[in-house]
Structures are given as C-alpha cells and as structure tokens.
Amino acid sequence: MKQLIETIVMPLVDFPEDVRVDVKEDEQRITFHLSVNKTDIGKVIGKQGRVAKAIRTVVYAAGSSQQKKIFLEIGE
C-alpha cells in the first residue's frame, strides 16, 4: 500500500525526493501519513480537495480486502 501511494503522488510533485509515507498500525485501523514538500502540498490536495479525494478513493479500494479500516493523512 505504501508503494501504491508513492507511485500515485511522485509524478504530481516537483520534489519527489521529499515524498515520505509513514505507517501506523493499530488493532482496528491502519493510518498512512503522507508527507510532501511544503511547496507541493497544494498539488497533492488539488482544487477543492479533488486530487486528495481521488488518492484516498484508490487507496481505500486497494485496501478493502483487509479487515482493518484504512486512513490517509496528508501533511508536510
């Protein structure tokens, strides 16, 4: 899943070397925290959050086979 998020986000940003995905796993959920360069945050979120929503949709669909809930947080 981490590789999927990186594959989606890296072509969108100007500084792909700053893309980092951290994973935190609990009993009932998995949280992925996506960190990008401060100047790229707008590109990842998109107008009215459309790009972020699309990324979340793909990640949630890919993780639907798991028994845990999946969350994606976007930050710098």
TrEMBL record:
<dbReference type="GO" id="GO:0003723">
    <property type="term" value="F:RNA binding"/>
</dbReference>
<keyword id="KW-0961">Cell wall biogenesis/degradation</keyword>
<comment type="similarity">
    <text>Belongs to the KhpA RNA-binding protein family.</text>
</comment>
<dbReference type="GO" id="GO:0005737">
    <property type="term" value="C:cytoplasm"/>
</dbReference>
<dbReference type="GO" id="GO:0071555">
    <property type="term" value="P:cell wall organization"/>
</dbReference>
<dbReference type="Pfam" id="PF13083">
    <property type="entry name" value="KH_KhpA-B"/>
</dbReference>
<dbReference type="InterPro" id="IPR015946">
    <property type="entry name" value="KH_dom-like_a/b"/>
</dbReference>
<dbReference type="GO" id="GO:0009252">
    <property type="term" value="P:peptidoglycan biosynthetic process"/>
</dbReference>
<dbReference type="InterPro" id="IPR020627">
    <property type="entry name" value="KhpA"/>
</dbReference>
<dbReference type="GO" id="GO:0008360">
    <property type="term" value="P:regulation of cell shape"/>
</dbReference>
<dbReference type="InterPro" id="IPR009019">
    <property type="entry name" value="KH_sf_prok-type"/>
</dbReference>
<comment type="subunit">
    <text>Forms a complex with KhpB.</text>
</comment>
<comment type="function">
    <text>A probable RNA chaperone. Forms a complex with KhpB which binds to cellular RNA and controls its expression. Plays a role in peptidoglycan (PG) homeostasis and cell length regulation.</text>
</comment>
<keyword id="KW-0133">Cell shape</keyword>
<protein>
    <recommendedName>
        <fullName>RNA-binding protein KhpA</fullName>
    </recommendedName>
</protein>
<keyword id="KW-0694">RNA-binding</keyword>
<keyword id="KW-0143">Chaperone</keyword>
<keyword id="KW-0963">Cytoplasm</keyword>
